Amino acid sequence: MTTAPSPEIPPAVLLGIDSMQGLQAARILAGHGVPVIAYAGRRGHHATFTRVCEEIRYAGSSEELLADLERLGRTLTSRAVLIPCIDGKVLTISKARATLSRWYEIVLPEHDVVEMMMDKARFLRFAEENGFPVPRSRTVRSRVDVEEAATELRFPMVIKPSYRSTRWTSHTTDKAYEVMHRSDLIATWERIQNWADELIVQEWIRGGVEELYSCNVYISRQGEVLASFVARKLRQWPVDTGQSALGEECRNDVVEELTLSLLSAVSYRGLGYVEVKRDAVDGRYRIVEPNVGRPTGRSAIAEGGGVPLLYTMYCDAAGLPLPADREQTYTGVKWIHLRRDLQAAIVLIRRGDLGLWEWARSLRGRKVYAVFSVRDPLPFVLDVVEAVRKGLRRGRTR
Question: Using CA atoms, how far apart are residues 164 and 305, in angstroms rounded to an integer?
Fold first, then answer.
């Protein structure tokens, strides 16, 4: 039996609970007493076994999701705050905002800004035309384009999709592939060329993962920066071009100023995130990519560091009083995805790039967790079980 949300506290409706950032968002908002209704596209995903949601609903396609959001909206006793948690849902909600705004509070940039910042090729063109530092890149659609990129750009490089569609994610969970020389680039392109409509070849920004910084912000509908939080990666999985496994909050005014300058240039509104890497050779900072209109894995570390970023967004959208403390005070909190970090550590130790004692030292200090929770343990347990099963299947295949 579903418990009806309190009419005094507007519910948050999360799209994409079947993701790490969706699970974190649900836990954060529920921890502030917000009733959470969540949507998932995949039954059986480990995050759907969380205990913090009032209700979890399922919708496979965008059409099913929009139809069910309308049905849900008609039953709500107060306007809900609608929060997409994965890229595909951001696009879906942005396109349908005129209809959905009858029942939901939605805080997103203008639709053209959403599309431009989610399309890596369009974003790179915008950044170059407006003087924002990005790595040298080429868009490739043919073998000729790839060969020209191999001649014009400096190795090592990365090759990645302009947009990570469901077609891409049906083939791989990797965001990009590092290539060290010409033949490697051509072979990788030949293998992945049909996974996306358009691919990007980009010069690798020199330096280790510790040079990767991020700034998360929330900007109100009136254009006021209500919260911001800077952190950096310490490890990622996969280890070369993956997602964060261990990170820590830090102070980096250059990264924050670059983020706010970029978002100001597009009159940005809502939750925003910009990843920036410092080149270890020339010391320059270059934008890697933005994330648009959704919580990221950094939401939990911001919360742990005393900046209730996601709750600030909810309160502002719902017309409730804002949290009093929203300034980053640099307490040294860390964020860890336990399974990913163990996988990354094993690979790095085998390579000789990380010592066992060094890994143990890196885990010291106050931490917040990506998936693990003592109060809500089942998603973590099932995530580990599924990872073990996948590892065994790969082992049998090999």
Answer: 30
Given a cut of 90, is residue 115 above it in pLDDT? Answer: yes
Annotated domain spans of the chain? 12-115, 136-203, 209-386
Per DSSP bridges, beta strands 55-58 and 36-40 are: parallel
Is 136-203 CATH 3.40.50.300? Answer: no
pTM for the whole structure: 0.92
Rounded-to-integer distance, Cα 188 and Cα 202, Å: 14
Residues 195 and 235 sit within 8 Å (Cβ to Cβ): no
Half-sphere exposure of residue 361: CA atoms within 13 angstroms, side-chain side = 5
Using a 10 angstrom Cβ sphere, with 0-12 exposed, 13-18 middle and 19 or more buried, the burial of residue 204 is: buried
The confidence score (pLDDT) of residue 6 equals: 45
Q: Which strand (E) or helix (H) includes residue 272?
A: strand 270-278
For residue 393, the surrounding DSSP H or E stretch is helix 378-397
Q: Where does residue 352 fall: left (phi above 0), alpha (psi -120 to 50 degrees), or beta otherwise?
A: left
Q: Tell whether omega for the bond before 238 is within 30 degrees of 0, i.e. cis.
A: yes
Give domain 12-115's CATH superfamily: NAD(P)-binding Rossmann-like Domain (3.40.50.720)
The tokens of 86 are what?
């994965």
165 three-class SS: coil
Contact present, 38 and 65 (Cβ < 8 Å) = no
pLDDT the model gives residue 4: 44
DSSP 3-state of 161: strand
Taken as a whole, the chain contains a residue count of 398
Are 163 and 196 in contact by the 8 Å Cβ rule? The answer is yes
Residue with tokens 């973590």: 380
For 73-97, b/e burial (b = at least 16 CB within 10 A) is: beebeebbbbbbbbbbbbbbbbebe
pLDDT band for 398, please (50, 70, 90 cuts).
low
Q: Which pair of tokens denotes residue 362?
A: 């890196």
> Between the CA of residue 183 and those of 144, 149, 186, 198, 329, what are the distances in Å?
14, 12, 5, 20, 48
Average pLDDT, the chain: 94
Q: What is the pLDDT of residue 3?
A: 41
278: tokens are: 């410092």
- Answer yes or no: CATH 3.30.470.20 is held by domain 209-386: yes
The DSSP secondary-structure symbol of 101 reads T
